[in-house]
Amino acid sequence: MTILITGTSAGIGFTLAEYLGKKGHTVFGLSRKNIDSPYFTTIPTDITNNTQVQNAIAKVLSTEKRIDVLINNAGMGMVGAVEDSLQEEILQLFNLNLVGSVQMMSAVLPKMREQKMGKIINISSIGSEMGLPFRGFYSASKSALDKVTEAIRYEVSPWNIQVCALHLGDIKTNIADNRVKTKVSEPYQSTFNQVYSLMNTHVQDGTEPLEVAEYLEKLLAKKSWKAHFYFGKFGQRIGVPLKWILPQNFYESLMKKYNKLD
After folding, report:
1. String of b and e for 115-132 (b: at least 16 CB within 10 Å)?
2. Which of 2, 145, 237, 250 has the smallest number of CB atoms closer than 10 Å to its CB?
3. In degrees to the nearest 10, what's the CA dihedral of 136, 9, 196, 121?
């Protein structure tokens, strides 16, 4: 298969690219940094720049006859109180987490329609299913991607193109180094510091990226997809069905305990 993965300079994206390349797939990694790997080819690309996206796809198709899979992995985190967040920070986040992924889908869909098949995985978060304290805009950006995923499934199904959102829990990566961290004002400082410390602990105790790659490989082998798949530790995955069935106030009380806000 010919597989395109965004955000392959580090973390989950790098692990996915090397893992799938070792399995014999032709893998192209789209990231702003040029990464040397014997298992995949990097095409330096800023996915928020549509001209660069179109050029990257043209480069792939100059050597490959098809595009079988797109994995929209590139993204960034953002932490801080809703009140303190600046417009430019919010727009930067949505431009990468939502608009960049949409531009990638739009770029590969003509080829997938032509070949009458294709698979697109949008990497989302378990946190997209609920508003997380001091991560409200991150949750919102991934939730927006989820709804676009649901919508596009209807639109591309006549061409046997499958799309899903893969919601991940905390994965052990260096995501903390690349988060947008807003200036936190005094009323929130103490609570934020407590939650932020816990947040980083959850990441350090998170699932290994290799486990994500192994799960994703099984997902690619499935003949049909649901709109949403969830992968991570049980304590995080269980938060999704509980959100669906529990009264909101009771659910919020559980979330406060989980985040040590009670």
Report:
1. eeebbbbbbbbbbbbbbb
2. 250
3. 40
Tens-digit pLDDT profile for residues 79-95: 999 999 999 999 999 99
Strand partners, 168: 125, 231
Scored b (16 or more CB within 10 A) or e, 34-64 reads ebeeebbbbbebbbbebebbeebbeebeeee
pLDDT tens digits, one per residue of 145-179: 999 999 999 999 999 999 999 999 888 877 666 77
Closest alpha carbon to 127 in 79, 183, 163, 71:
79
| H or E element, residue 158 | none
Residue 126 in tokens: 């378990």
What is d(CA 168, CA 6) in angstroms, rounded to the nearest whole number?
Answer: 16
pTM (predicted TM-score): 0.94
Half-sphere exposure at residue 24, Cβ-oriented, CA atoms within 13 angstroms: 0
Q: Which residues are catalytic?
A: 9, 124, 138, 142
How far apart, in Å, are the Cα atoms of 177 and each of 10, 11, 136, 154, 197? 11, 11, 19, 37, 14
Name the DSSP letter for residue 183.
P
Q: Which fold has domain 2-258?
A: Rossmann fold (3.40.50)
The Cβ-side half-sphere exposure at 133, using a 13 Å CA radius, reads 22
Domain boundaries, the chain: 2-258
pLDDT per residue as tens digits for the range 181-194? 898 999 999 999 99
**Strand, coil or helix: what is 10?**
coil
Spatial separation of the C-alpha atoms in residues 84 and 134, rounded to whole Å:
10
Give the chain's length. 262
